[in-house]
Design brief:
- By secondary structure, the protein is of the alpha+beta class.
- The protein has one domain: 3-Layer(aba) Sandwich (Aminopeptidase), CATH 3.40.630.
- It has three helices and nine strands; from the N terminus they run E-H-H-E-E-E-H-E-E-E-E-E.
Length: 166
């Protein structure tokens, strides 16, 4: 587990394309999103992580600067694991390292849009329980938050700008 370096980007983008492949040969939206996140003002290099095995990138996660009614927050995603390495703890390790770094940096909350079958085991709960509103109300319980501060900010969450083009 380490901080991603610019030289990792081709391997990371290829990994994300494989992890989110739809089977029709089209580029997954997550690949384009990740490329745009690297270039946006919300990019936080210390929260772009890779998992390696024998020098090969097998997992990736990024968290970018988001805002809750003007207060800083982290927006996690995308997160990707090599398809043949999924369910081996790589995603869990990436989430744990993201949390560790966020706590060390004094971040107040991490939010994400994801599976209610997966993320609650890592402490994520529907963001509405913490008083955080999703950019899209239709996301419902799939928009989750992991409060890191005793009193995280409340209000409407805004992701880094590239998310708005999805």
């Amino acid at each position: 587990m380490r901080t991603e370096q610019p030289a990792d980007r081709p391997a990371v983008l290829n990994l994300v394309a494989r992890a989110f492949a739809a089977g029709d040969g089209s580029e997954p939206v997550e690949s384009r999103l990740l490329a745009e996140l690297y270039a946006c003002d919300g990019f936080l290099p210390e929260f772009s992580l890779v998992a390696e095995d024998a020098g090969t990138v097998v997992g990736q996660v990024i968290s970018t600067r988001g805002w809750i009614d003007g207060a800083p927050a982290l927006g996690l995603g995308p997160i990707a694991v090599e398809p043949d390495r999924q369910r081996a703890g790589i995603g869990a390790a990436l989430l744990a390292e993201t949390r560790r770094r966020a706590e060390a940096a004094g971040e107040s909350v991490i939010v994400l849009l994801g599976s209610t079958d997966y993320y609650p085991r890592f402490g994520y709960r529907p963001a509405s329980e913490s008083g955080i509103q999703a950019p899209n109300p239709a996301w419902g319980e799939n928009f989750m938050a992991l409060p890191l501060a005793s009193v995280p900010p409340t209000g409407a969450f805004a992701y880094a700008e590239p998310f708005g083009r999805l």
